[in-house]
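Problem: given the chain below (317 residues), write out its structure.
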Amino acid sequence: MSLFKKIFSKEKKETLDKGLEKSKTSFFSKLSKAVAGKSKVDDDVLDNLEEVLVSSDVGVETTLKIIERIEQRVAEDKYLGTDELNSILRQEIAGLLAETNVGNETDFTVPSTKKTYVIMVVGVNGVGKTTTIGKLASQFKKTGKKVILGAADTFRAAAIDQLQVWADRVDVPIVRQEMGSDPASVAFDTLKSAVAQDADVVIIDTAGRLHNKVNLMNELTKIKRVMQKVVDDAPHEVLLVLDGSTGQNAFEQAKQFTLATEVTSLAVTKLDGTAKGGVVIGISDQFQIPVKYIGVGEGIDDLQVFNKIEFVDSFFK
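Solution.
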């Protein structure tokens, strides 16, 4: 019995398998063409494999790492059959994910050492940021945590209203002000309310404007500074939400946000509607930031804790 079968529910595993189906089908279709007519892994196969990985949105740098590792295996083995390539790719990608020391969790948890655990969520508009917050709130509530949301994306009225819809749906309190209010003021009020209510988890939504990185940086820094007046080490986590279906654009967004603020974890959404699932591998490797959650469906329970064992198993199943 493989490890994931011991720790993951059958329903959750089936959702992940289904969510990665497009990515897997596209990848293996390309891979079969790359090795067509070849029995041995040679330079031509490796060149073709490099193209397959890059076109599957694994990213150039990560692709080169994987190719280099397979080249070492070829050099050691002298004769490596193309029929073994699937297994070797699986091993090397799993090894690469293991090096980032992420993806070991199986449940939605927060450190027990933090009484009021504060998560600040960042990301551009349209990536599924508010939906991710709503689904996170639902999952934490299911584990018995008391959750409060803060609508600090005051740049758009729609963002505030959308978060309110999720708060109502999940039945958790929300702190909000009018559109155009100071985001830091909303964050401050949210934490004051959370401490007063003895909340376990606070999730703060922030504006997703990247067109002026300096303003974004200043705004996020101010939000952090103001929150620390209430909870001195807040935020405990800065979660960047990326849309997996945008492929290489997700890499660029990760780059811009990591320059603007200290990002400590990632959520990659919309993997069920795309063939670009390889982006999870590349982003995890290149930024050395834990991919903590992945979105593999539209249902409220289709945000999953990322586990590298389960992910690689589904991708190469």
